[in-house]
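INPUT
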Amino acid sequence: MPIPQHWRLQNQRYRLTGEVCNTCGAKLFPPRDVCPECAKPAYEPFQFAGKGEVYSFTVLSDAPAGYEAYEPYPVALVKLQEGPLVTAQLTDVDPQDVRIGMPVEMVTRKLTEDGDDGLIVYGYKFRPVLKAAANG
Amino acid sequence: MRDVSIIGIGQTEVGEHWGKSLRHLAGEAVLAAMRDAGIERADALYVGNMLSGELNGQEHLGALIADFVGLRGVEAVKIEAACGSGAAAVRMGYLAVASGLLDVVIVVGVEKMTDQKGAVTTAGLAMAADAEYEVVNGISFVSLNALLMQRYMHEYGVQHEDFAGFPINAHKNAATNPYAMFRKPISLEAFKRARMVAAPINLMDSSPVADGAAAVVLAPSDVARRFQPASVRIIGSANATDSLAVHDRRDPLFLSAAALSAQRAYRQAGIGPNDVDFFELHDAFSITAALSLEAAGFAERGRGVYLAKDGEIALDGRIPICTFGGLKARGHPVGATGVYQIVEAVLQLRHLAGPNQVKNARIGMTQNIGGSGATVITHILAAEG
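OUTPUT
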């Protein structure tokens, strides 16, 4: 992906900013400008808390080009507390220990890098909720 | 609107064609279909293809292939809908002939995938998914389907082994298909032992990367017999869409575009699932086969997998699928697959399927899926007369 395409996504990648539909109240991530629930305009930014649970997961051992160095790594569909599903890698967890329903939270991590001289791409991953954070 | 029939078919063997380029493969299929139809010219050529730009450094396939097969001058264009490109192109040909604007249209699906390293092809296939919100997170196309399979097993209490019947059936049927990539049966043991690709999907759940091309010739039904005594009529044709990304679906385990596309085709044909004699479905992965059977109305939700266990998908079963090996064992040259399915359905309806023949086949359905269910094209075909 070209650099400007990554740059435009900074609010989604680093802050998990989506949108809320002013008509039906649906919370949307990724932002999409037209609410898929009621087909009305949805331009109002909405800040997601970054908490959710694992809806499904897998472990990649045949990674696409650019990600081979990280195999094997777990990828999940995370069900955010506010409703939407997000596709993201899981981190700070042994793939063997991942379970459907496991509580997770967003962290910012390196996703990939474009060779030795190219862009280092950062974005959201999800990790098991830390005990201290869960209590606080 | 006019009725449309298929008056010619052609296909190349599916496999690793190191000695043949994309244009040669497409040309071979087109010329075979033209010979079968007994035609020397056409009004248009539509090319179904997904990855020629990414894997072969070549776009603009319409003009390239039209010229290569001696049709310089005709209307020609490439049609792309990821792994659904082939049937999407057939659908466009159908619309053109049905509208009355064109009379004879050739549709070819072609894909040349094996010139590149595996990771490059894997990255290319991932372009069927959302680049900004799925692919950048390191997902592959296999892993998106693995997310569905894992959730399916969790929600319905299904074991991985329960899916074994899909690849076993596909390989059994491919064994007697001279155009198939894998012409040998596999055992339950082989399924269980297969290397993991993206858990729970293993190698035997997955269709192979392959090269291949298939073509059909379409013409108005009222003149079809003049060309082809064994013509086959398209009695239903539909294309439906869903969100590109799996995470944008309210219910990821229901392929709503597959359901919509099937319902529209059933309505047009005036039939229901019980009238279908065989179903060439899109078994890119064994989970896709189960979800397709459910979406198209052949099984209740969570029950599609049991059709494979109970032998109902065999050639002599209630609803035979993958009668020439399906994507799993005939092979899955992505943009060509949808046309292969239709070529195979025509062979069944002409009763020229040899050892793969479904007895008394009168009505066949094909369903080609782009991406993880975002574009789904269904065709229902009927033997003439």
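end of record. DSSP finds 14 helices and eleven strands in chain B.
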